[in-house]
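Changelog note: in this version the structure field was regenerated for every chain. One regenerated record is shown below for reference.
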Amino acid sequence: MELLAPAGSPAHLIAALDAGADAVYLGGKRFSARKFAGNFSDEEMKEAVRMAHGKGVSVYVTLNTLIGDMENKALAEYLQFLGTIPIDGLLVQDFGVVSMVRKIAPHIPLHASTQMTVSNLDGVRFLGDHGFQRVVLSRELSLAEIKEITDQTNVEIEVFVHGALCVCYSGQCLMSSFIGGRSGNRGSCAQPCRMPYELVDDAGRPLAQEKGKYILSLKDMMGLPRIPDLLAAHVSSLKVEGRMKSAEYVYNTVSAYRKAIDAAKQHLLIDTEPLKLDLEEEFNRGYTTAYPDDTAGPSMITEYAPGNHGVEAGRVESIGRAAFVFKSEADRRLVDVTGISYATEEKTIAFIPVERLSPLKKGKYRALFEKRPLAHAHVYWNVKIPKKSLAMKDLEGKIPLYLSLSATPGEALSLTAADDKGHAVTVLSDVLMEKAKARVTSAEEIIKQMGRLGNTWFTLADISVSNEGCMVPKSILNHLRQEAVESLWKKRIEAHEAGIPRSLPASMTPAFSRVPSEEGTHVTVRTTLLSHVKEALEAGVRQVIFGGESFSHRPIPWKDYEEAVRLCHEAGAEILFPTPRVVREKYQARAQAQLRKLLTLLPDGVVLEYAGAIEWVKGEESLAVWAGPSMNIFNREAEKEIERLGFSGCFLSQELTIPQIRHIAKGSDIPLGAYVYGRTEMMISEYCAINAVMGDKDKKHCPMYCMRGRFALKDGEGRRFPIHTDEWCHMHIANCHVLDMRPYFDELKKAGLSALTLDVRGNEGSILSLCKDACDILCGRKEAPGAGRGDDVTRGHFFRGVL
């Protein structure tokens, strides 16, 4: 089981190597999901690969963002460069990038980023069949689900084990880009989940006001206690998050996991509590094991602040007018801390510097405060983190070096260097040794000279010296030592690189036959309500997407599906059934069986929201298969990959501009769609804010508060984001503004779009007027409204794009 460490810069790389990482992941200056990390220039990356490979450590390069067509030239140049250096793998999100890798650098092993939202076995199988060596699973999966997947695939499985958690399934978040134009899919996330929100009811009244406001900010994952279970599950790689953290964070975190993994591999019991305490000294938002334990709930959130918590000290015991007393179970010397933090009555986190703390008896402390603490509030030590020296001479994780030197008169000086992996080299001096005329070089002098390895990754473990009376100059010893070390280092690099898989990735092959769909530009309606289907057809809509997630926690009744098909076919309209946006492994069989049953109703097509669902409809004849917007088709190369798979149509990414859509449409041989109206679905989450705020138990014991009314998140500016829950117990957060592109239907039509989609999910009112209006505008029976808009309307990314 591999320990995979973050390397956000060359300094992070050295820290990771020194701490015992088996592999590192890093990004270049472009096309990386951590755009604001230091990252690596081309020359730095070359050196990073040589350094890591010499250490026996793999290097995976992150290219896990969506790529715009205007970036293709730069991407091609970058891939050409990556093809010249022997990286161990390339993490990708974008099907367009996959296509270009096959053309430019097909020998590079492909890894599916967690941005691909792979949450079940079928997703793994699909990617494995198309040349992916490794898949990074969604963070939300439980240990049982992970084992279920690893037991049934030969594809390498990588899971996150430590660090920050996104509240949204990775690859499915639009909140950052729709609010601030910074796309998480492009490596520029503005972290809207770390902002304060209130849960409000349908009238806008705050609920459970005693709770904190950081109800989308999740604690960090802490997988230390689960290492034996992950090892037993045959996980290939454990990933530590942290390219934006400090080098000290990387070193200390990787060191802790190195100890835990090594102990687990030897079936040794190890007390992880001291290691956990060490990790609490690093930046952390509090720790959770909720996802691997399948216990998502209120305990996951930071609640009062999204920043560093520190080391949990204890709780407030008594509060006076200007000071409070707390007792620390994790007692510390005050010289080790900068102060404490605690929750205030204002539902915020306050900091008290060490100068305002005074020790009392029995582990108690008195703290002078400015902001009054909550009764029995948690108190945290904020600890000084010593700077880690990254100078080569100070590193601890060096390679044991075994030397054997032989000096014989009349022969070249011979030095053999070997490491602990069985690699060995022998080098000879250019001059012959002579019998000493005055003084024989002592073994101690030779050992001292051979031990000068400070600026290398080697440390002298043992040396044998055979000197038959020779005087050996220091210059010759130095030269021979340097030559031996360089040769051994080169041999280690060659040995590592010889083991990198170089099989050609399989190209996309058709999974089904393409079926003609509704021609010309038309209005499509996506809904979960039968009443909406009737109104859409009455208004003249000729394509309906019905079903998928219910948005009402209850499954959509079977009779509604039956009736929707009957109504559409009697009206001469197409009906498509969508898959859920995310299907966890534990629900995969149920979801697949549900879709197979729905296909007996003979819909005209399906909308697949993730690539793994291709396995569910393989070989289907006379069924139009569309790619949903959740598949993040963002460029022409990605659209062509969808065509090669046999898709009949494609709903494009919701982060594209009209010019970008036009460019994709010019080269497309299938109809393309876009969502042009509705409250855009910003997030889908396994965590539920309604459960967390209204209850005190995990989701397994939730009394389904979501069934008792409507809820929304209200941000600091007063904007309300509606919350919906589905039958799979996912939380869906909708936009505070309604996307409305009706004034621009003509531009969208000219851009080459076929399906202008009105997404009315979550709207329980009548849509008849909206549908009539949209159909009349598109057909020219009615003039498009003016470009002016109210405060509640947005044009999405059609004009402004994303960073």
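Spot check on this record: The chain has 22 helices and 38 strands. The two ends are 36 Å apart (CA to CA).
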